[in-house]
Design brief:
By secondary structure, this protein is α/β, with parallel strands linked by helices. The protein has ten helices and 21 strands. Helix content is about 25%, strand content about 25%. A hairpin with a 2-residue loop joins strand 18 and strand 19 (about 355-360). It binds zinc ion. Zinc ion binds near residues 229, 231, 233 and 235.
Length: about 425
């Protein structure tokens, strides 16, 4: 294979990462890129201790390495590591695009929301706020109406140039902005991340805050994958990230413009290399080989994500729709508190106020001193959204939750009762 940033990381993984070192064909035997096996989440979950670079885990200062995990929207949880220098490098291309597209630079003030508090005590005020020189972050726990009003006041006083938030949080801020009649002074830009962005939500945010709104696609495993330009196209940060599209059934590479499953390769994460990684999303890519050029002037390839299910919301008896991502956040909380013990999950709404919570937990939770009742209690406590006060949860434990839509994509939230009205939105 010709040498480039992506083959360099492959060579590195085959040399230093046990999971790759054990593969049948050594790096030297790989003739072309497509011969490299696809990396699936199951394989990473099965090999929790051999998917990390031994060079890093043994030799480098451990305080430079951060352990992270994702609870993901696919219902499968994963542990991995980043070295702080790689992490910083992974953020560079998106900063260049932010500046180019929206005039935002690293010393513009920004607000965000977080699930996991940062460990540094001096910036973490009471666990509910994180303050650094240019950033102000708010914990997503305990989001009562009163606290939201307080957060909104804090944001308006801080006067951020931009917000980096999830669509569900942006919607809550829209509610408060309309209720108080106050905008956010100096706000130029809102970058939305972490959840599927619907057109309806985008238009509302734009209307309420009157600023640029752009979609950011990324994941904790590889950081930014693509950022939307002012022309509405998601440009892939192709100096760090390679996106391939493969056929669902044959795993064959698909040409430009054809829809299929996305494989992501990161050229920067050496501690936990993600190579031809099946991230669990579908979409199409334009402009890789052709002279396709976006009218924004950027010639990086464009990714079009297949619109996810907009039905990812809980429906209550009063007809209110609540974003089902509140469950993802509850799982994240449990994994932060209890040794990343949830490996897989699925939530089924069986009636307006009834939910089945299917969990796959670490075999060793007893040895770790974790009681299932504590997990269940924390799950209940974490769902604080108004309208969910009377919800009842029934917990079930499994060895494994099988993929169930016939396409290998886990549906992590389902509504499973004909009593629930079918709505067409
Ligand atoms: Zn563009």
């Amino acid at each position: 294979m010709e040498s480039n940033r992506f083959t360099d990381i492959v060579r590195y993984a085959y040399r230093y990462v046990p999971m790759y070192m054990r593969r049948e064909a050594a790096y030297e035997k790989i003739e072309k890129w497509e011969d490299i096996p696809i990396l699936r989440k199951e394989e990473l979950q099965k090999n929790p201790d051999s998917s990390y670079s031994c060079e890093f885990m043994n030799a480098v200062r451990r305080e430079d390495i951060a352990k992270m995990h994702t609870s993901g929207s696919t219902g499968k949880c994963l542990e991995f590591y980043w070295h702080k220098d790689d992490y910083a490098r992974s953020l560079l291309p998106v900063w260049i695009l932010r500046r180019k597209f929206y005039g935002i630079s690293t010393n513009d003030k920004m607000c965000y929301f977080y699930t996991t508090p940062n460990g540094y005590n001096e910036i973490n005020e009471s666990g509910l706020r994180e303050r650094r020189r240019y950033t102000l972050g708010f914990s997503k726990s305990d989001l009562t109406h009163e606290r939201l009003l307080k957060i909104y006041r804090d944001i308006t006083e801080f006067e951020p140039a931009w917000l980096f938030i999830q669509p569900s949080m942006a919607v809550l801020l829209c509610d408060i902005a309309e209720e108080t009649g106050n905008g956010i002074p100096g706000l130029k830009y809102i970058e939305l991340t972490g959840e599927m962005l619907t057109e309806h939500v985008r238009q509302r945010i734009k209307k309420v805050f009157g600023c640029y709104v752009a979609n950011h696609y990324g994941s904790h495993e590889v950081n930014t994958i693509a950022l939307e330009c002012p022309e509405g196209h998601m440009h892939i940060v192709d100096n760090n990230i390679l996106v391939e599209v493969i056929d669902e059934d044959t795993n064959e590479l698909l040409p430009d413009g054809e829809e299929g499953r996305l494989l992501i390769t990161s050229a920067v994460n050496r501690v936990s290399p993600f190579i031809r990684y099946d991230i669990g999303d579908r979409g199409r890519v334009f402009g890789k080989s052709s002279e396709y050029k976006c009218s924004c002037g950027c010639n990086m390839p464009v990714l079009e994500l297949t619109k996810g299910r907009v039905h990812e919301y809980i429906e209550t008896e009063s007809g209110e729709k609540i974003n089902a991502y509140i469950f993802v956040h509850a799982v994240e909380k449990i994994n932060n508190a209890y040794e990343s013990c949830i490996k897989q999950y699925k939530i089924i709404q069986t009636d307006y106020d009834r939910f089945k919570v299917k969990l796959v937990v670490d075999d060793e939770i007893e040895e770790l001193g974790i009681d299932k009742r504590d997990i269940e209690e924390l799950f209940r406590q974490s769902i604080t959204h108004p309208g969910m006060e009377d919800a009842k949860y029934e917990f079930e434990y499994f060895e494994r939750i099988l993929q169930d839509d016939g396409k290998g994509k886990m549906l992590w939230f389902e509504k499973n009762n004909c009593e629930l009205k079918e709505t067409n939105e």
